[in-house]
Predict the structure of Class A beta-lactamase-related serine hydrolase.
Amino acid sequence: MTDPRTRHHPGPYAHPQARDRIRAAFAEAGVTGRLHAVDIDSGAQIDAGADRPVVTASVHKLCLLVALHQQAEAGRLVLTEQTECPRDGRTAGPTGLAAMLDAARVSLRDAAYLMVAVSDNTAADLLLERVGLDAVNDTTRRLGLTRTHATRTFREFLATIREDAGNGGPRALADPQVVARLRAVDPARTNRSTSRDMTRLLGAIWRDEACTPEPTPRRPEGPDCDAGPTTRAYDAGPAASSRASSAAATCRRSCGPVLIPSAPTVFRSSATRTQAASTMAAPV
């Protein structure tokens, strides 16, 4: 595994007019946006607020995924190790173990698959119980992601939304004043990163710098995936190649490779926040 921090040499920037067009698109959609895209081969890049901190929400599951595989590589855990998921007390969510009714027993690698394939919050917190937030932050620090940091589990992240919304419940999130006080939309008070850090993470995964590749890894599949380098971090399945999340119906962030036939591989990471709290927008 090579040191990804040695690969962070910025390439040429796109023409300023391209950046202006991106900012105009954000403005036309009625959102504030942050974006970074980089060509994996040439290093050519374009950004719009790429170094501004943003809330990561489920995008931070990519950091946890890499930390899990690094822990396995270091011999601190075994990916086939079984973990218990009790019937009660699960982290809320509409997919995977979070949506199931009965107790379950899964391996760590299967929990990782659920975490990235269907953004399973329960699976993510099962892994965090085994890996720990400190290990996730150690991983991002070693990868040179200096503006990426996790302070909460996914259960704790969701709990802050409920607490900050108050007695009004989900309906309160239609009030811009309520949304403005949510810790879940303030990168200074929750899990955070930048668009540039996320493209660096994706590049390290793609180049097999984040983890040592397995001899026969499971390749990502789906409309946005194609043959190419892969790593143990990608072993968890197709959604590792494109991670998107939203929080409090007012923010949207996503990151992943853009694979175009007969063209270079481009990594892009973006985050948007609507000006109206009751509306969600995700310009790409």
User: Anything to note?
Assistant: Strands lie at 31-39, 45-48, 54-55, 82-85, 104-107, 192-193, 243-247, 251-258, 266-274. Residues 216-242, 274-284 have pLDDT under 50 and may be disordered. Residues 16-29 form the longest helix (14 residues).
